[in-house]
Amino acid sequence: MLHINGLVCRYGKVEALKGVTLSIGQGQLVALIGANGAGKSTTLRAISGILPSAAGRITFDGHDITKCSAREILSKGIAHCPEGRRVFPDMTVDENLDMGAYLRSDRREIAADRERIFGMFPRLAERRHQVAGTLSGGEQQMLAIGRAIMSKPRLMMFDEPSLGLAPNIVEQVFSIIDSIRKSGTTVLMVEQNAYSALEMCDYAYLLETGSIVLSGSGKDLIDDEHVRSAYLGG
Ligand code: ATP
Question: ABC transporter domain spans which residues (predicted)?
Fold first, then answer.
C-alpha cells in the first residue's frame, strides 16, 4: 500500500534520513522503532507531506506522492497523529473533531463517525463543549486520535501515542490502536515503548541514525540480540 524507497530528508545540513526504504501492506500494523533522534518523526513528517524530501520516492496505492502537499496527502487517505498531541487548544472537543473532517462532505457519515469516537472515548463525550487546552494529557491524546479518525483515513500514522501517559491510559490507547487496525485501517506506529509496539505489530523496522538497520516480524525483533540489549533493556 505504501512504499518508501531511498528517502533522504535534511534539516539544513543535518541529514536526518539517509536513504530509508520500507513498505507497509494493506491492513498491516507496522512499527517503526529506534532511539531518540533516529529519524522516526522525520519519516512520518515526510510521508504526510509536512517535510520535503531531498531524494527518494514515496508511493501510495501505486501513485507517486513524493511531491504532494500535506493537504493532497490527507485527501488521499493518510492521517498523521503527531507527537505531543497538538490539538487546537482554544477550540472545543467538538470543533477539534470538525477540523479532522474538514475535507469531507458526507454529513451523515461524519456525524456517525463522531458518535463512534464518543463511544470509544466516553470522556470526550462528557467534555465535548470544553476547550481542548484544558483537557488532561490522556484526554488530549484521545482527542488527537479521534481527530485523525474523523478524516476517515486508510493509513493512520501515530507518533509516540503513549508518550507521557499514565500506564492505564497507555493500555487504553494501545487497545484503541489495535481496534483501529482490526476495523481494516492500515497503521504505521512510531513508539518509544518498543516492547509493546513489537508485541502488537505485524512487521517492524529498526531505524538507527537515519537508516533502517533491521526489519522483520515483531517476534523476530524481540528475539534479536541487538534489539534486546539496546531497546528492550536486555
Ligand atoms: P525523537 O523520539 O527524539 O523524536 P526521532 O527518531 O523521531 O526522535 P527525529 O525527530 O526524526 O527523530 O529527528 C531526527 C534528526 O533530525 C535528529 O538528529 C534531530 O536533531 C534532527 N531534527 C529534527 N527536527 C529538526 C529540526 N526542525 N531542525 C533541525 N534538526 C532537526
Answer: 2-234
What's the 10 CA to ligand 1 centre distance in angstroms? 10
Q: Is the C-beta atom of 41 inside 6 A of ligand 1?
A: yes
pLDDT of 18-63, one tens digit each?
999 999 999 999 999 999 899 999 999 999 999 999 999 999 999 9
Q: Whose CA is nearest to atom 20 of ligand 1?
A: 37
Maximum alpha-carbon separation in the chain = 51
Taking CA atoms only, the protein residue closest to ligand 1 atom 25 is: 11
Nearest CA to ligand 1 atom 16: 16
Indicate whether residue 168 lines ligand 1 (CB < 6 A): no
Stated pTM of the model: 0.89
3-state secondary structure the chain: CEEEEEEEEEECCEEEEEEEEEEECCCCEEEEECCCCCCHHHHHHHHCCCCCCCEEEEEECCEECCCCCHHHHHHCCEEEECCCCCCCCCCEHHHHHHHHCCCCCCHHHHHHHHHHHHHHCHHHHHCCCCEHHHCCHHHHHHHHHHHHHHCCCCEEEEECCCCCCCHHHHHHHHHHHHHHHHCCCEEEEECCCHHHHHHHCCEEEEEECCEEEEEECHHHHHHCHHHHHHHCCC
